[in-house]
Automatic annotation (TrEMBL):
Residues 209-362 form the Phthiocerol/phthiodiolone dimycocerosyl transferase C-terminal domain. The lineage of its organism: Bacteria, Bacillati, Actinomycetota, Actinomycetes, Kitasatosporales. This is Phthiocerol/phthiodiolone dimycocerosyl transferase. The keyword NAD does not apply. Keywords: Acyltransferase, Transferase. Residues 181-190 have a biased composition (Basic and acidic residues). It catalyses: 2 a mycocerosyl-[mycocerosic acid synthase] + a phthiodiolone = a dimycocerosyl phthiodiolone + 2 holo-[mycocerosic acid synthase]; 2 a mycocerosyl-[mycocerosic acid synthase] + a phthiocerol = a dimycocerosyl phthiocerol + 2 holo-[mycocerosic acid synthase]; 2 a mycocerosyl-[mycocerosic acid synthase] + a phenolphthiocerol = a dimycocerosyl phenolphthiocerol + 2 holo-[mycocerosic acid synthase]. Its EC number is 2.3.1.282. PANTHER family: ALCOHOL O-ACETYLTRANSFERASE 1-RELATED. Belongs to the acyltransferase PapA5 family. Residues 191-200 have a biased composition (Low complexity).
């Protein structure tokens, strides 16, 4: 490391994520033998590949700061026996480091879980998966007694996404865009899942997080993919239609069509010039809302066709980029009814036999009342994870949403 610290100010969207205690948590389910000493060695090597993980996030003079000190904060392996608690544990980002890793050991039949928490202010889903893949590759090298490449990934301290987008939109255009968004929401606010765990309009007493999952078999996943292609849709658009249909029975009032807003996440790494590799630690994801009137019993395929045109139009128009650039003007706007992040197919890491990574979850967590759906494909199966704050929603609410998603997905895959 340099003898001088590296630091930069957080951008508006990064600062808001830090203030909202937003983070991204990955959970690997590991089967077979796990060598804890090799995990600790791999964490030390990971810190050399990514010095920013040994950095700090803190407030100074009214602004957020991301800083890497000359001697970064070391990464350490925590131990635990409660998976839910490990998922909810956050690091102290002000003192560092910016990665908290916990090995959770439970009943033998459930295997072990490797839980990693990152502050959302400086990461996105694509880079946390890449970093975790690198960590497990370093673990495999440590088990094999190999010397891995420890060259730092560049840039060591990436700039904010706003700097990459500077000049694409005039300030007046951004204000006008925010005003249009505000007018649309004021005229017909989107229906949102009732925060059943809230107390007097605020967060309830449970500080923890929960998660529910809808999982398709490899055969069902292949069938759903085939249906999307035959219908002239992307799999992501079909899944968005499926999720809106699954959410609608949980919204009030029960009768009639309701305005529902589907937040569609967009990976901006591939849309920048030059593209930003997934290995670079940076918050480079955005998205945009698409509004539809949705009635109970709506056909997911029909909803997907109605979503397809607006999604294509927003992508062509650069709406996701505009959402980031206009962020200071959008802070008063409410969340979408449901926010969908599709991370695509994730490779299964190669581990020393007989160990294997049987399962992966990528969970965006926030203290705000937001409903997330994270779509991944792993080992041939499509999974939809629904992480949530128990201060706002009950386990029953989110489990019903996951069950409805699973049921509709099974019906679609049989068409």
């Amino acid at each position: 490391m340099s003898a001088a610290p590296l630091e930069r100010a957080l951008s508006p969207h990064e600062a808001a994520m830090l203030a909202g205690d937003m983070r991204v948590v990955t959970v690997w389910e590991l089967r077979g033998e796990v060598a804890e000493d090799a995990l600790e060695t791999a964490l030390g090597h990971l810190a050399r590949r990514y010095p920013v993980l040994g950095g700090r996030l803190f407030a100074r003079g009214g602004e957020g700061v991301l800083r890497i000190d000359p001697t970064p904060v070391p990464l350490r392996l925590h131990r635990g026996g409660d998976l839910a608690r490990a998922i909810g544990e956050r690091g102290d980002w002000a003192t560092g480091p910016l990665l908290r890793t916990t090995l959770v050991t439970g009943p033998a039949e459930r295997g072990r879980h490797l839980v990693a928490a990152f502050p959302r202010a400086c990461v996105d889903g694509m880079c946390v998966v890449a970093v975790q893949q690198e960590f497990l590759a370093l673990y495999a090298a440590a088990r094999a007694g190999k010397d891995p490449d420890l060259t730092p990934v560049l840039p060591v301290l990436a700039g904010p996404l706003e700097a990459e987008l500077e000049g694409r939109c005039a300030p007046g255009e951004l204000r006008a865009y925010a005003e249009r968004r505000a007018a649309e929401e004021a005229e017909r606010p989107p229906a949102r899942l009732a925060p059943a765990a809230a107390v007097d309009g605020g967060p309830g007493p449970d500080p923890g997080f929960g998660t529910a999952r809808a999982e398709l078999s490899p055969a069902e996943t292949a069938a759903l993919t085939g249906l999307a292609h035959r219908a002239g849709l992307t799999v992501n658009t079909l899944v968005c239609g499926l999720l809106l249909a699954a959410l609608r029975p949980s919204l009030e009032p029960a009768d009639g069509a309701l305005p529902v807003s589907c937040g569609v996440a967009v990976d901006l790494r591939r849309r920048l010039s030059p593209p930003v590799p997934n290995e670079v630690i940076q918050s480079a994801a955005s998205g945009f809302p698409v509004r539809l009137d949705v009635a109970r019993g709506s056909d997911p395929l029909s909803l997907a066709h109605r979503l397809a045109g607006p999604i294509r139009a927003h992508l062509r128009a650069g709406t996701a980029e505009r959402e980031v650039a206009a962020f200071p003007h959008l802070t008063a706007q409410g969340p979408a009814s449901l926010f969908v992040t599709n991370l695509g197919e994730i490779d299964s890491p190669s581990l020393p036999e007989p160990a294997r990574a049987a399962r992966l979850q990528v969970l965006p967590l926030t203290r705000m009342p937001m409903v997330f759906a994270v779509v991944t494909r792993y080992r041939g199966s499509l999974h939809v994870d629904f992480p949530f704050s128990r201060a706002w929603y009950t386990d029953g609410q989110i489990r019903r949403l996951a069950a409805a998603t699973r049921s509709l997905a099974a019906e679609l895959s049989a068409r």
